[in-house]
Amino acid sequence: MRRIEAEVDVLAANRAFYEAFEARDIDAMSELWEHSDRIVCTHPGWQTLRGWASVSGSWFALFSNSAPLQFILSNESVATEGDVAWVTVDENLISETISGTVAAVNMFVFDGQRWRLVVHHGAAVAAR
Amino acid sequence: MRRIEAEVDVLAANRAFYEAFEARDIDAMSELWEHSDRIVCTHPGWQTLRGWASVSGSWFALFSNSAPLQFILSNESVATEGDVAWVTVDENLISETISGTVAAVNMFVFDGQRWRLVVHHGAAVAAR
To answer: A75: which chain B residues are within 8 Å (Cβ-Cβ)?
Structure first.
């Protein structure tokens, strides 16, 4: 796969992640992740969660218990190395209860067919 | 390179990163990073910095202006995919002015000789 094509596919996977997040669609979210022990997910302010069992549990909890979130994404950029890609993006949050920006990095591994999430790491950007 | 050997080398590079950080050693820090446009660094609370010019500038600023930091690292884990590796680790900070835990992910790319940092992303863990 050429690099430009890969980057287009990775950015599509990255947007699908935020669409699943906004839609609170646990099936779509599940499809996006590699189901393995090596994946990691750090929601802003949380301890790092390791492995699909913990990560999927966090999405169930977030989609069940917290207010729906909307994101405006900005400063999206992508890089690739072999079958691995990383995207950095600013998640500009809009909700009734939360606002602000989260600086995120999302890492994907190409499994031969699709790019699967292996790392999602979000850090709140301090208000100026 | 076999996977276990790679993981040992990656963890050594990861520790070298924190040693350079604690020692405020800009040359050692510079050696650890890939000097390219695709690297990204998110210090806790900061906007994401992209590219070596911005990233190196942040280390100069941190080493010049902020109080020295000490880290106790915990929950270190590593995964690899081809020539890419990612480490998650909790940085337990000890200083006169700051305490608390930062959940970090550090990504490395093997350049044929050494593992070079391409992503450092730190998020403060909320106190319970």
So the answer is: 48
CATH code at B3-124? 3.10.450.50
pLDDT < 70 positions in chain A: 1, 128
Residue ranges per domain, chain B?
3-124
CB of A51 within 8 Å of a chain B CB? The answer is: no
CA-to-CA separations, A128 to A71, A82, A123, B45, in angstroms, rounded = 20, 38, 15, 10
HSE of B49, CA atoms in CB hemisphere, 13 A: 20
* ipTM of the predicted assembly exceeds 0.90: yes
Cβ contact, residue pair A107, B107, below 8 Å = yes
Residues B4-26 have pLDDT tens digits of 899 999 999 999 999 999 999 99
DSSP 8-state assignment for residue A103:
E
Which of B73, B84, B87 is the best substitution to test chain A (most A C-beta atoms within 10 A)?
B84
- Residue A118: per-residue pLDDT: 98
Three-class DSSP category at B84 = strand
